[in-house]
Model the fold of this input.
Amino acid sequence: MRGCIGILCVWLLALCQPVTARPAIEIGAERSALYLPMLKGKVGLVVNQTSRVGQQHLLDYLLAQGVDVRMVFAPEHGFRGEADAGAHISDGVDERTGVPIVSIYGQNKKPGKDVMSQLDWVIFDIQDVGARFYTYISSMHYMMETAAENHVRFMVLDRPNPNGSYVRGPIREDAFTSFVGMHPIPLLHGMTVGELAQMINGEGWLAGHVQVDLTVIPMRHYQRSQPYSLPVSPSPNLPNDSAIALYPSLCLFEPTTVSVGRGTPFPFQVIGHPQVALGPFEFTPVSGAGAAKPKWQDTALQGIDLRQSSIHGLDLTLLVSTYQAITAKGLPFFTSESFFDKLAGTDKLRKALVAGQSAYQIEASWQQGEAHFMQQRQPYLLYDLIASEIAN
Done:
């Protein structure tokens, strides 16, 4: 009885203690004292609209600090982040600063010696969302590779992973290597871009097993499982926290007959179909900025509003149930089996859907690969894992 009373007293005492606010995350770009002294010579930036130091773009900030920025490398969606997914990105000049812009999306993903010989440093500072098929990490890979081949130093200014709590999904198999799957990692890897850069380098994943002279400027006060709301949308169709949380699960619908809301005010927050009533929610995609010629343009769709959904991480429940509902009507589900396999990093997921496996059965098949990856990534982690991290 005394033990119980003692425990109760300790519990009550703990409740009476003042709540200490968690310190704000200090991203790598804000830790200028760590990196400005290093930036001697000519600098190139891999940046977009998310590359900010407070309210100032990193390009403007570095120029104001006297850094010799010679060029900007623009990834998918462009330097200002306004281009559609997959849209052509052109070279150009930043009107505000006069700094040349070199596209690294499309045909020229990897600048050659003619470009890299003009630089001493390349800095990568882009907000990622933690999914293997989100192409900013693929652009980072190619820029690390060309930097290594041309003896240019590479720096990553680290940022949080808003899906950093999760390690989930099939490991990408070699036969399905593509720009939406560059690395043999799970669909959700739970790493920051700085940690992933260290793993790419350390595991010899660059062509020819070259290694780049890499510096990562880490964050302060970051834990990978803490909620993080992105201050700037990372791409036109991920406008808010809801879309970012649902993106890993809904992106797999892209090469199917199901709309994920492109061409609506709520992309990656709904699903719908014109011939099968997936749910009671109705919406009509229209062409517009960030969604030119969306799937089922100007067609009324019936589906599910997921904006208040508890789905997070990678959840196959919707994919499995939707596949079964559509194919039961004798209608096609996949619009591109090969692209679906590239997104999944394997053909096993598609074949499991066709075979009628449940979400539980499919997700259970990933566990061994996930466990191996978590051991493999351990030497490259910069931030503590805490008890609430979700591994499966």
Confidence is low (pLDDT under 50) at residues 1-15, 81-89, 386-392. The first helix runs from residue 2 to 16.
